[in-house]
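At this stage, I wrote out one protein's amino acid sequence and its backbone structure tokens, and that material follows here:
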Amino acid sequence: TQVARGPQRGLVIRVLVAAMVLKTKLTEALGIKHPVIQGGMHYVGYAELAAAVSNAGGLGIITALTVAQPPMGKEALRDEIRKCKKLTDKPFGVNITLLPVGVPPDYPGIIQVVVEEGVKIVETAGRNPEQVIKALKQHGIFVIHKCVAVRHAQTAARMGADFISMDGFDCGGHPGEEDVGNWVLLAQAAQELKVPFVASGGSATGAQLAAALALGAEGLNMGTRFMATKEAPIHDKIKEAIVQAKITDTTHIFRFLNNTERVYKNAMAATVRKIEAEKPGDFGAIAKYVSGENYRKSFQETGDTQSSVWSCGQSIGLIKDVPSCQELLDRVVGEAEDIIRNRLQSKL
């Protein structure tokens, strides 16, 4: 069946999706319908979004470090997991990111809650995940480790990671220091990895899902694209900024700290970059400008797109609307299936 190219396109895609399921190692391992993960995102990955993605057939993920903060700490994560269980009976996961911060989060407490609440899937990310991965694997938890280099993926696999999320330089958040985009990174992963992987970073469309599968990936991890959905628990003004953005509307901070972060190109990011150029490596000079509390207020209270630095990927320029998670996943998978069945077949 061809997808219509006229006004009825959306309707025909929905009909196709209803009759089609992309079967990959990811969907089989996790028991999900679609090979799409909603990656962990600071001040976005709450139960409402995770449950909406899981109910739509993907894998929703709660961001532990966003939730498990003082004064409740790990117990706030427990509450969020229980809330998610009430909102969906589908698989969902928890993200645990290991970052170089002054006061380390309560990682043992976070792991304890994940185990006690029966969470079966964890996305890990960041530096030196060995202790976290081993602790999770002792309890039979399925671990998807997100990393930005194939050699890091190989190390994570030796530690026990079941799946890898290969995160290209196009991604929001922390893309590493090697500046390798997904076009090359995914091809390298297919050549060298012995564990399955998904494509992460800069992804927002069904064409990219089809391309990722062609490059050897077993699915797609999307972050920024899920920020611009109806269920994303962030201010509408942030969503509007994403829809209006161009692919050039991101920039990098923390390069002088060897902890590069891709963020929205706004007034605060420009201030931080200026100070970093004048005082390279001096985190104290920028600390008040990059506060997580500023980030939280922008997303959860004011909707001010300019007063904080906030993560987003280059896919920001591919996002043109704010659909529901169900509408988004139907569209992405429908477009991928159309390309695989029709466009690619027609080239043979």
Notes: The chain has a mean pLDDT of 94. The two ends are 17 Å apart (CA to CA). DSSP finds 15 helices and ten strands in the chain.
